[in-house]
Amino acid sequence: MERKNTFNEIASEYDKYRPSYPEQLFTDILAYTAIQKGDSILEIGCGTGQATKGFVDSGYDHVTCVELGQQLAELTREKFKDKPHVNIINSPFEAWQSQKSDFKLAISGTAFHFIHPQEAGYRKVFDLLGDEGSIAFFWTVHVPSFDDVSNRIRDSYKKHAPQLDDSKNPSMEQMIAERSNLTVKDGLFKELEVKHYEWNTAFTNDEYISLLNTNSRHRLLPDDARLQLFGEIRDAIDQDGGSIIKPQAVALFLAKKNSK
After folding, report:
1. Is this prediction's pTM over 0.70?
2. Helix, strand, coil shares of the chain as percentages rounded to 5?
């Protein structure tokens, strides 16, 4: 199973345990793009509608969402059933044929990296935007901690899932540099602005394990390895008082269609 297909198995859990995006992110997108209420928004990979909700709650509810997972699409469709201008389409973005090619804004929350090849994804978004269109693509970024409980948890990863050892992850700076290059390298988009947001969230033991269980790379572990890993993580958190503070981060990439 591909990573992008794992979320569909656990749509309700994903909706419950994944942290929402910070309000400032939506404020910054609206300020950069200057879109008006009633302007059309395209969302690539809406999942359970967490990013969709940020725009709808602000009054920007003309949103076309393209979502690969059937259960995710159904959950999001039900969530916005009272919003007639929120249209949920169950389709791979790569295969979707739009009748519209003048979207004002294209957004994607922790999803666009699943489009392959990336260059074709950006090209398709470019073609779907109107001349004054913009993109706002954003990703949650894992921030490693190195306190005692985090180091004990890291030892468990090295034992049961060494490929998930977060000390080997790209840094925020490396991720931003790579994604910035992808955004502008073909000359389709200009005036790139990058912002990032950081905060801390406290999780109980059960909440943290449930959060990990929504992560695609954890979902793809063999069952026995995942169960042993989660058991040791639970023990480490219990020994530290039964809760854990997790740093959270989101990186936002804003750019405008280069219509020249």
Report:
1. yes
2. 45, 25, 30
What pLDDT is stored for residue 35 in this prediction? 97
**Residue 249 structural domain:** 3-143+169-201+245-257
DSSP β-ladder status, 86-90 and 103-109? unpaired
Count: domains in the chain: 1
In-domain check, residue 229: no
Least Cα distance to 227 among 135, 128, 161, 136 occurs for 161
Q: Is the pLDDT of residue 258 over 50?
A: yes
Asked whether residue 62 is domain-assigned, the answer is yes
What pLDDT, in 10s, does the model give residues 226-251?
999 999 999 999 999 999 999 999 99
Tell me how far apart the alpha carbons of residues 190 and 47 are, in angstroms, rounded to a whole number: 27
Residue 194 in domain:
yes
Asked whether residue 235 is assigned to any structural domain, the reply reads no
d(CA 196, CA 179): 13
Q: 3-class SS at 108? A: strand
Q: Can you tell me the distance from the alpha carbon of 82 to that of 103, in angstroms, rounded to the nearest whole number?
A: 22
Residues 6+ apart with CB under 8 A from 69: 5, 7, 8, 11, 47, 90
